[in-house]
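hey can u run this one w/ NAP bound, need the structure tokens asap thx
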Amino acid sequence: MNILVTGCNGQLGTELQKIAASETQHHWVFTDVDTLDICNKAAVETCFDEQQIDACINCAAYTAVDKAEDEPELATLINTFAPKVLAEACLKRDALLIHISTDYVFGGDAKEPYKVDDPINPQSVYGSTKAEGERLVRESGCNYMIVRTAWLYSSVGKNFVKTMLMLGDTKDEINVVADQKGCPTWAHDLAMALVTLLNKNGKNEVHETFHFTNEGQITWYDFATAIMELGGKTCKVNPITTDQYPTKAKRPAYSVLDLSKIKAYAGIEIQGWRESLVKCIEELKRE
Ligand SMILES: NC(=O)c1ccc[n+]([C@@H]2O[C@H](COP(=O)([O-])OP(=O)(O)OC[C@H]3O[C@@H](n4cnc5c(N)ncnc54)[C@H](OP(=O)(O)O)[C@@H]3O)[C@@H](O)[C@H]2O)c1
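ok here u go:
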């Protein structure tokens, strides 16, 4: 298959590039905003035609959660309008769209992991624009797999793990919220799961939504403590409440995603968050 990856220089796209480097089954076309702006419908159509795209993995997104509160138009363009452009391009050519979404589509007041079909209730501009993007992909009629993930990190770009390691080098102690619970996800593990989904489905008809994160549920405080420990930092981590750390965008207090559907469908085992964190930190130490 000819596979288009958009937003390929971000965290997830970079992991797909690494996997593709040792994968010979498919022809991969990697693009980012400088080579294919997914908001540009004409450019998307041309790319699909010229490259004869059979599947598109949309890793492009507006991911600055707080900044989105001040830039709702731009966030809407990239997270809502552009997925529709990609979905329409896929529909015309009977191609598959693998579209990535977020735990922030949920309200955060649940007491047990969110199932794929649970009602959404986004609390932020980012969450709303991603939820609308999902809706337009579903309504387009194209073959799609929407994969919601959460708390993504990797050795590239900006993320919580890299921020904590940097603070570990520069601060004696830091405060981290201990009343928001979720699931960290190593971008490498998500990329592997996406390739498994792609290979399993091939060009067959599909209209499914999945959840993928690493196994286990923790707070940002737990996560920060583990990062400091595994990164060999002596910086002390103090637990605080969300009220003590006001942010522009409201975060869900509980955004744990139920993984049973993707495990059964793709036949995969998912690593625990700590095992994957160890591997990512090892990778960062090697760099
Ligand atoms: N990061 C998280 O914690 C998290 C959590 C849950 C879900 N997700 C979802 O997971 C997916 C991957 O996230 P990520 O962390 O890998 O994102 P990322 O690192 O922010 O990468 C996104 C990439 O998309 C590019 N991009 C932005 N606008 C574009 C456009 N108009 N056309 C083409 N490319 C464009 C960005 O370029 P610039 O850098 O130049 O803007 C960047 O290279 C996204 O759908 C995101 O919503 C992420």
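The pocket of NAP is lined by residues 6-7, 9-12, 32-33, 37-39, 59-61, 63, 78, 82, 100, 102, 130, 149-152, 157 (CB under 6 Å). anyway lmk if its weird
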